[in-house]
Amino acid sequence: MTIYVVPRVYFEEMRGTPEEREAMAGLRVISINSVRTREEPPFSGEFLGLSTLLVLRFDDVSEAYEDGVFMSPQDARRVIDFVAGQSPEKPIVIHCTAGISRSGAVGQVLNDWLNRHVSPNEADYEHFCRRHPHICPNPHVRLLLLAEIERWMYEKGKSVIQRNTENHRGETIWIR
């Protein structure tokens, strides 16, 4: 699955152009907008209701002492449901303000999940890694998404995180 991470200026520059119409017709887009700076999604109004556009609003914060709105577990679930409920033929493009931290975390987690576990595709996995060496994933966003993927997979009976441990009798057991 082809996944890209871009800064919001990527979409801002094509807003209202024929290129925007073409891009929105051929992509699945996850738009992450800052609450603190009152960012609005960088798309023409006609595209805001598309089923292939997921708009999220949270800030690039990862520590409790930081000021801002955190990504919520509900936001993480919306990302997983959005990706799982869409046709895999269209590439996924994720943006945030700079295309480094929040969108980087989403892209990195989706790349690993989709290209390593759901439909293994080493070429797409490596392409993402080569194309996005600048990513510095927001740890809070990353952990929420990983937890939500595990929850989603468990609900589907396909847990991807399994580990062995010892029970109270010293026997090795598998935990799902």
Tell me what the structure shows.
- This protein has helices at residues 9-12, 18-26, 73-84, 102-118, 122-131, 139-155; strands at residues 3-7, 28-33, 53-57, 92-96, 163-166, 172-175.
- The longest helix has 17 residues, at 102-118.
- It is globular.
- It is an alpha/beta fold and 176 residues long.
- The protein has one domain: Protein-Tyrosine Phosphatase, Chain A.
- A hairpin with a 5-residue loop joins β5 and β6.
- The two termini are 26 Å apart.
- Residues 160-167 have low confidence and may be disordered.
- The protein has six helices and six strands.
- The strands form two sheets. Strands 1-4-2-3 form a four-stranded parallel sheet, with helices on both faces.
The geometry reads as: globular
N- and C-termini, Cα separation: 26 Å
Rg result? 17 Å
Number of strands: 6
Question: Could you give the order of the helices and strands?
Answer: EHHEEHEHHHEE
Low-confidence stretches: 160-167
Question: What keywords describe this structure?
Answer:
176 residues; alpha/beta; Protein-Tyrosine Phosphatase, Chain A; four-stranded parallel beta sheet; two-stranded antiparallel sheet; 6 helices; 6 strands
What's this model, at a glance?
The chain is built from six helices and six strands, in the order βααββαβαααββ.
